[in-house]
Amino acid sequence: MMKPFIIQNHTRPPFTVSFVRILSVLSVVILSIAFHGFALADDRSLPFFPKKDITKKDKPFGDILKDYRRKNYAIALKKTVRLKKDQQKGPIEETALFLLGDLHLKLAEEGDSRHLRKALTAFQSARASYPNSENAARGLWRIGQTYALLDLYYESIANYNRLLIKQPESLFTSWAQLGIAETYTRWGKIEKAIESYNKINLHKISTEGRSEVLMKQADLLYQLDRFEASYRTYEKIPKGVDTLKMMPEAFFQHADSAHRTKHYKRSRKLFMNFFDLYPNTFLAPIALSKIGESWYLEGKNTLSRSFSKRIRSLKSASSDRNIYDLLAAINDLRFSPEGKKNRAGGLALKEIEKRAAALLAGPPLPLPLQRVILEAAEESARHGALVIALNIEGTLLNRLPSSLLKKKVRSVFQKTADKTIEKLLKENETTRVVELYHRYQADFQSKKSNGSLLLKVAIAHAQTGLFPEVVKLLTPIAENENNALGEEALFQLTEVHFQTGEYNNAEENARRFLKQYPKSIRLPDILELSAKLKDRQGKMDQAIQEYRSWLKRYPKHRNKDQVSFLLADAHQRKGDLRPVLEVYTKMNSSFKKLNKSKEQRSELHLKLADTYFMLGRYKKSAEFYHLVLKGTTKGEKAEWAQFQLAMSYERIGKKNKGAQIFTQLAERAKDPLLKGLSAQKTNTR
Fold first, then answer.
1. CA-CA distances (angstroms) from residue 381 to 333, 374, 415, 438?
2. What is d(CA 162, CA 168) in angstroms, rounded to the nearest whole number?
3. Per the confidence metrics, is the pTM higher than 0.70?
4. pLDDT (tens digit, 9 = 90+) per residue, 386-418?
5. Contact 209, 244 (CB under 8 A)
6. Where are the alpha helices (DSSP H) in 447-518?
């Protein structure tokens, strides 16, 4: 919500005498508003004296009122306590009782929170003793304020509503409605606050009060990014009232809400008025930047560039240089083609990265500057600099207090993070994904974070071998059956347990998956994984049965060849070679029809050749080793095929052919084992 507009002198250029005078008045006005609500036509912040009570003219109350006006509340409190002690039940005691509560509340508002409970007790005692007092309405209103300051919001609103129901014609009706709106704001129930502002009867309050009610309502709408409604509300503020000019941040928001709702002509006028009034504030260059942006959005590039130059030409203290340079860089980037690498755009992005980092490393930033930094990040993301945008947004998110803007930054951060991670994974930059995740881990895992993002992060961790972190990331998603991504998370978790040798966990997850997602598109994958689990655990008969069942169920699946090889390997480890040959022969026939690549055919031919050799069918093994060497002439595979071909020739009686190959291998083989074995074969002849 709108906070007092305070400029720290050590970070700003020297002000003119008149500007200092304006700020001194401004601070008093804002602090008054912050504690007491709005100064309506008659000053209800002063004690209320019933019409029937002539004691206002009496010396005791006259002295107390003087101290009250001078803000000597502690002295006024002591005098009121003494006065009350000397009184019987009647008008003087009645007024003194209500005044005690008022004075305790004033002292609490000055910073001594111990007086809040005392104020509450005093008001409640006064109302109990004098339920029909003319001060009763004011007492209820003050009790509502006290409860709000104690953060007892429900009780606060109940008291305001009690006032509205019991005394609907009271002078304090509008103040009670305003109190409800302010309490909802303090409570964080912004929509309720806005509804409450709409119920205030503006016709029953003064022009000044109406102006300030509208300003606070407009501020809330602005914080919610409901800029059109905010602009319309600012526009309703009565003409001739200087409220906005006395509050520069609200004045700026009025102009900015016009700008964001494409009322560019009006926004330019407001921004220029603002700049003329406050040329030395940090908002001044932002106002100029917004004017330049409005011309850009209307296609007036020459005018837009002129404001960018004007920002650069402004002189400011060195500590403000970052603001000016950041704004200028945003403008430069705006004129750079999106998504294309160019020198100007690259320089602008570097400048944005540098200046945003410098500002975020400094003192807490006011709201308008927070918005500028967020816009800088969004502009960077539009130009493809996702990592720069993510770093700016992540740092900004961690620097912001709890606020409505923080919700927006978190939402933007999540979207940028999702795009960044996806881009880095496509580029196989898994290490950078892991680094970004651990830099902003709390934000990645916030309640607003989507499971898709964490799944991608988990994949990156898996690819870099950080399996314990993968389990931490996937488990919460996998355990939530109502999460649309729980299915994929559970599959990936099962895969990770399989890879890390945690077979019991993997089997349990596989069973759970089959039970929860019997129609999943991942069903072929989980069934394949289940068969591989049996294989790894040495349950060969079960594994073979599941591999065969899988191939029968999914004859055209993309993993068909992979599962066929697994089935053949399982038979081979069991020592049953004939089914191995059956699988490979069937695959070879299929490969010919499907025109598989040379590499794939060569791999299968080698397996067939080795199987024939182990079965003692050397003519067939020689035939397939020849086929392997047609497609592969170098490397380990070629040397093995040559050696085995020579062995096959030897076994079928073609020793000379075999000897030639052994001689070549003994001279040229790179594999020392094959080289040595070939040499032995040569020497034995």
1. 11, 11, 10, 21
2. 9
3. no
4. 999 999 999 998 888 767 788 889 889 988 988
5. no
6. 451-463, 467-479, 486-499, 503-516
